[in-house]
Amino acid sequence: MSALKIKKGSNKHSAYNLRPNFSDVEERHTLAVLVDNEAGVLARVIGLFSGRGYNIDSLTVAEIDHEGHMSRITIVTTGTPQVIEQIKAQLGRIVPVHGVNDLTVEGRAVERELALMKVICTGDKRVEALRLADIFRTNVVDSTLDSFTFEITGTSEKIDAFADLMRPLGLSDLARTGIAALPRGS
Questions:
Q1: What percentage of the chain exceeds 90 in pLDDT?
Q2: pLDDT digits over 120-157, tens only?
Q3: In this structure, how many other beta carbons lie within 10 angstroms of the beta carbon of residue 157?
Q4: How far lies 84's CA from each of 58, 69, 88, 184, in Å?
Q5: CA-CA distance, 162 to 52, in Å (whole number)?
Q6: Domain co-membership, 66 together with 115
């Protein structure tokens, strides 16, 4: 008989409990991926997500170094911590990827999005749309006798809130850029 007694049902210190403690709660993460600016790179990154059934909530791509031929892909995705770790590891293995930064866990980041919204309205609704646009600090980039096109920049939550207020006033069209993000500080 062994002198070591383990409480029934407890495997906290068992050699068979090799899985790290990952939460089943889904989290939103913003990933910044530095890649070579060449044909097919974006398709490979997107293929990684679609091939494994991962969802992309927002995707922004732009060249950041013309001479060095480097682009930055900003991806917002949702998943359990285990899924996020898999995504980062798999992204890091793609050959033209130079770095993967998880801005969500590396500290505070600045995130902004741009949206254009067309609101078709007249009379009191037109006055209310302009009043709300002023509160949200939007710009009117186009105006006709029966419509406005507003430009709004801010967090995704700010854009969602403005769109929710514009819907009953006549929101007819919406275009969003996706999130651009950088870490804060040095």
A1: 71
A2: 999 999 999 999 999 999 999 999 999 999 999 999 99
A3: 10
A4: 15, 27, 6, 21
A5: 34
A6: no
DSSP per-residue codes, 110-135:
EEEEEEEEEEE--THHHHHHHHHHHH
Query: CA of 71: how far to CAs of 20, 33, 42, in Å?
Result: 34, 8, 10
- The CATH code of the domain that includes 62 is 3.30.70.260
What tokens does 6 get? 């383990």
pTM of the model: 0.76
Helix spans in the chain (H) = 41-52, 81-92, 124-135, 156-166
Find how far residue 98's CA is from the centre of its chain: 20
Domain that holds residue 69: 27-102
- Return d(Cα 135, Cα 158) in angstroms, integer: 11
* Contact call for residues 70 and 35 (beta carbons, < 8 A): yes
Of the three residues 74, 102, 130, the one that is the final residue of a domain is 102
Q: Are residues 129 and 70 in the same domain?
A: no
Question: Which is nearest to 29 in space by CA: 64, 50, 58?
Answer: 58
Handedness of CA 73, 40, 100, 160 (dihedral sign): positive
Instruction: Tell me the torsion sign for CA atoms 40, 60, 103, 31.
Output: negative
By the 10 Å C-beta count (0-12 exposed, 13-18 middle, 19+ buried), 176 is classed as middle
